[in-house]
Design a protein that fits this description.
This protein is α+β, with helices and mostly antiparallel strands. It has 20 helices and 26 strands.
């Protein structure tokens, strides 16, 4: 008798339990995290009433292999079983049951199953994928569960959707895998034979024709040699005929059916109609013959006819083929390099073959016949002169193409020599106009040479009360060099290149002569770093030139430099050094003299005094009432993570520009060059702030030296001023003489 469902009459199922937490909706399924809310348990992990149990997966022995999930460890690993099923056949006396052979695939990564039946000829049954890949549930009474690896072994029977399959055998991989996980795999069972299938096979083999005709079996030749083509290169000499010539041909021999195809090679401007195929694919007879009339030649001859005409009549065929005219066709054994082929009356000489053909004949080392005739080079086309409209390249595009195309520049050079950050790759020179007019003698110009495309631009800085309006004097473009001869082929002029510009040279632009007086510091640095492109900055060749002049006048050289020295000093002023050197070696241009002075300069000497540059900077800051020195110092300290008091020059300049310190670029650059540095070549930013702090550490202003320095630094202010001076203040002449004469 059951107790009533009343308080005090039932047992507490939670008695003794220690888990009372609420189950979550996310868990690991097959070692993969995911949402399991539809199968989650109740309080304490107990299954809720009516909830379906979670599906089980195959379990593998632990302790071997890694801890990867099954979908990673068993990726692309499949077990294959050979099985069969028997179906009853009703109302058919030839067979009572039918045995169908299938292959069952079990995918280890997700326990899915696929059943495939190999297709048989004329079976009239739907074969192929009988069951597509998915997890197959077990039959009743194990409803709600799925087949796993434990259900598979040789000799077992599986019920897949009410159809029984007997596992008769498996492949070697499946047998090894099951053995490794501890299963005993029986020997393979034989698949029972199907009586009806054997009957059909015996019937097909016994069907032989009573009067067999000849069969030309070309299937094997086709399957063995399909897409295998022999290629020969040859010539057809047709010079014996009127207007004939030597024509190049390509012969294709198809091994699949012994047919020949002929193509003609058309050269450019050959004035022939380009026919895709000269001879269509056909068997090529060795001797040309006329096309026979219909019925003239037949493969078989009828000797006699018995009985009535039509149905019921009989005839006898000529098995000896006495009425057939044999025709010989070219075989691949008849082709070789050096042989001639008769192509319907045209003699084709085979001169060469491709690699596959040579390998097919075993003639890789056989020499080919030189059949390509040397063609005379076409005379160069004369190009019209430039009409001064647009650039020269644009005008040439109109002459080369019917539809003009945009000329292509040197993209690699543009990519390497275009602006990269603060490096503009622009060479700027200070120039003077060579003229006899007094009003134009004092005019100064800034010539900019762009390295990315070898273009030149000329700008005239405006001068107050000069009577000349400054601005853009020559727009950016390529400038013709009158000192170079025109191109002998195209008769086009040569243009100025960056290596043609140097201090001391005269540049002629549009019949205006400009004398290059000076250049900014970037020009000298860039040319010295790329001395292999700029001969005027190659210190080795310059010293060699000076040595050739000075070896015979060593005493005069030494006395000239010693006269310009102050008492007890081994250094001299840069201006005095350049003047003496230019006087001793007149062959040197100004750029070469300045390169020597820069190379032998005293590293401790500075072009402009630090006090003078600091006074100039304080004058500029004082005019705009800039007093945020404490904030600027805080920014430097915030950027200095190591708290060393030093920062790289690029970082200091970037912070000054971002803080918008009202200093011109040339003054700021010179000030950074003169700032104290440590062993890592980093700037002392505290000393920099102290140098420009006009409130706490004012410096004397208004001196002529400061004004002169500011004017000198601003001389190249368009369009991007240089930082630093191009000429050093002092030169170590004794080191120069030691390198020149030795000792």
């Amino acid at each position: 008798m059951a107790l009533p469902f009343l308080p005090g009459n039932q047992f507490n199922p939670k008695l003794g339990s220690e888990r009372f937490h609420k189950s979550h909706c996310f868990d690991y399924n097959n070692q993969v995290s995911g949402y399991v809310g539809f199968n989650k348990s109740g309080i304490g992990g107990d299954r809720l009433p009516g909830a379906a149990p979670p599906p089980e997966f195959s379990k593998f022995p632990t302790g071997k292999g890694g801890s990867q999930p099954s979908w990673v460890a068993f990726d692309r690993q499949v077990l294959r079983f050979y099985a069969y099923c028997q179906e009853p056949v009703h109302e058919k006396r030839e067979e009572r049951s039918r045995t169908r052979r299938v292959q069952i695939y079990f995918f280890l990564e997700d326990d899915t199953i696929r059943v495939v039946e190999p297709k048989q000829k004329n079976s009239a049954l739907p074969q192929g994928d009988i069951i597509r890949r998915h997890r197959i549930p077990r039959p009743s009474p194990a409803d709600g569960t799925f087949y796993t690896l434990d259900d598979f072994n040789v000799g077992r029977e599986l019920s897949l959707y009410a159809k029984s399959f007997k596992l008769a055998a498996c492949d070697q991989f499946t047998r090894n895998f099951l053995t490794k996980i501890g299963k005993t795999v029986p020997e393979d069972d034989g698949v029972p034979t199907d009586e009806y299938t054997e009957h059909r096979t015996a019937m097909a083999e016994s069907m032989q024709p009573m009067r067999p005709y000849e069969r030309y079996d070309t299937l094997k030749q086709f399957l063995d040699n399909d897409r295998k083509v022999l290629r020969f290169y040859g010539i057809w000499d047709d010079t014996n005929n009127m207007f004939g010539e030597v024509r190049e041909m390509v012969l294709h021999y198809h091994l699949a059916d012994d047919t020949v195809e002929l193509l003609e090679v058309y050269k450019a401007n050959c004035q022939r109609d380009t026919i895709p195929i000269y001879l269509h694919r056909v068997q090529l007879p060795k001797e040309p013959h006329t096309v026979p009339q219909p019925g003239q030649t037949v493969s078989r001859t009828i000797l006699n006819v018995f009985g009535p005409m039509g149905h019921g009549g009989r005839h006898i065929l000529d098995n000896l083929k006495t009425g057939v005219e044999p025709v010989e066709y070219y075989h691949h054994s008849d082709l070789a390099i050096g042989r001639s082929v008769n192509v319907f009356g045209r003699r084709l000489l085979l001169c060469d073959a491709d690699g596959f053909t040579r390998k097919f004949y075993g003639a890789e080392s056989e020499e080919s016949i030189d059949y390509r005739m040397e063609r005379s080079e076409a005379p160069p086309r004369p190009l019209p002169p430039h009409n001064d409209y647009g650039t020269l390249e644009d005008s040439l595009a109109n002459c080369k193409n019917l539809v003009p195309k945009k000329p292509k520049g040197d993209f690699v050079k543009f990519y390497e020599k275009d602006r990269h950050g603060l490096d503009g790759h622009v060479l700027r020179f200070l120039a003077r106009l060579e003229t006899k007019l007094p009003i134009d003698k004092d005019r100064r110009f800034v010539i900019s040479v762009f390295l990315s495309d070898d273009t030149v631009a000329v700008f005239e800085p405006p001068q107050r009360n000069s009577g000349v309006i400054g601005g853009n004097y020559l727009s950016r473009g390529r400038v013709e060099n009158p000192d170079k001869e025109p191109d002998p082929i195209t008769s086009h002029p040569q243009f100025y290149l960056p290596e043609d510009f140097a201090v001391g040279r005269v540049i002629v632009m549009n019949k205006h002569s400009f004398s290059l007086l000076d250049a900014d510091d970037y020009v000298f640095k860039y040319m010295e770093e790329n001395a292999h492109e700029f001969q005027q900055s190659d210190i080795g060749s310059i010293v060699a030139t000076i040595r050739a002049e000075a070896m015979e006048r060593e005493d005069a050289f030494r006395s000239s430099f010693e006269e310009g020295l102050h008492s007890g000093d081994s250094k001299m002023e840069s201006a005095e050094f350049t003047a003496i050197l230019a006087n001793l070696v007149p062959r040197l241009i100004g750029h070469e003299v300045m390169t020597v002075a820069r190379y032998y300069s005293d590293p401790k000497a500075t072009g402009v005094a630090v006090e003078t540059v600091a006074a100039t900077a304080q004058e500029q800051l004082k005019k705009v009432n800039f007093e945020s020195f404490a904030r600027l110092l805080d920014i430097f300290r915030y950027e200095d993570e190591a708290r060393s008091g030093h920062l790289p020059r690029s970082d200091v300049r970037r912070l000054c520009m971002s803080f918008k310190v009202p200093l011109t670029k040339e003054v700021l650059g010179t000030l950074l060059d003169r700032c104290p540095r440590n062993e890592q070549d980093e700037l002392n930013y505290e000393a920099l702030v102290d140098a420009i702090n006009w409130r706490q550490k004012p410096r004397p202003a208004g001196s002529n030296e400061a004004a002169t320095t500011q004017h000198a630094l601003a001389s190249f202010a368009y369009p991007e001023p240089s930082a630093g001076q191009s000429t050093p203040s002092a030169v170590s002449y004794d080191r120069f003489l030691r390198d020149l004469f030795g000792g």
